[in-house]
Design brief:
Oligomer: single chain
Distance between the termini: 25 Å
Strand order of the largest sheet: 2-1-3-4
Strand content: 5-15%
């Protein structure tokens, strides 16, 4: 297999999770090599990734001579390889889906960096601050409106990159707000996403690992 995805520790690599999901859901064949990004070995492991990938981070996809080293770029590439099945066909909805992708990629107005992906797997989670609750409500509102506009069952009708990009975020928010009352479409959408075979496969491995207490080491 000449197409290799270098991903990361299952309960810490939210960006690798997104790239992996896109490849899986697009039906793209690939070999996965998991890079241990826990301390102290992460420094040496990521330095080796840096020998062929400028950011020295995961995920990175090597497809023949092409090295694709950003999670969003890998997701778009997976969609291309899959025949465009993971983005809406029409320009307007497709651009809006990419807007959601860009919002997620920039950290959802600062919310994601404060609620780490690895904290989703902690047996105990800290309480959200008032600002985090407000920002979470904005995200839930945006999801709810889009689900209503798109008619469901996913954000743009059929499963898209936008849905997959939000899986780790959904886990963060559900871990801290298990019952997001007032957003019924979001609740149904979340259950549908978390129940997908691809998501269940990743999470089964993630939940079997010891908790990771690191942040800010991915791109």
């Amino acid at each position: 297999m000449s197409r290799i995805l270098y991903s990361g520790t299952r309960n810490a690599s939210s960006w690798a999770f997104r790239a992996w999901l896109a490849l899986k859901e697009a039906g793209v064949a690939f070999e996965e090599r998991v890079v241990d990004i826990r301390r102290p070995q992460r420094h040496a492991n990521l330095a080796r990734i840096g020998e062929f990938s400028p950011p020295a981070a995961v995920p990175v996809l090597v497809d023949g001579e092409a090295v694709i080293f950003d999670s969003l770029a890998i997701m778009e590439y997976a969609n291309d390889l899959g025949g465009g099945v993971l983005l809406p066909a029409q320009p307007g909805p497709r651009a809006r889906a990419r807007s959601f992708l860009a919002w997620q990629h920039s950290g959802l107005s600062g919310l994601c960096p404060r609620l780490s992906f690895e904290s989703s797997f902690y047996p105990r989670r800290r309480a959200m601050s008032a600002d985090e609750r407000q920002q979470s409500a904005r995200v839930f509102d945006a999801w709810e409106r889009q689900l209503e506009a798109g008619g469901g069952p996913y954000l743009f009708g059929d499963l898209s990159l936008a849905d997959l990009a939000f899986v780790p975020t959904l886990m963060r928010l559900q871990a801290h707000l298990p019952q997001p009352a007032g957003w019924p479409a979001v609740q149904a959408w979340g259950e549908r996403l978390i129940g997908r075979d691809s998501v269940r496969e990743w999470l089964a491995e993630a939940r079997a690992l010891p908790p990771v207490h690191l942040a800010d080491y991915e791109s």
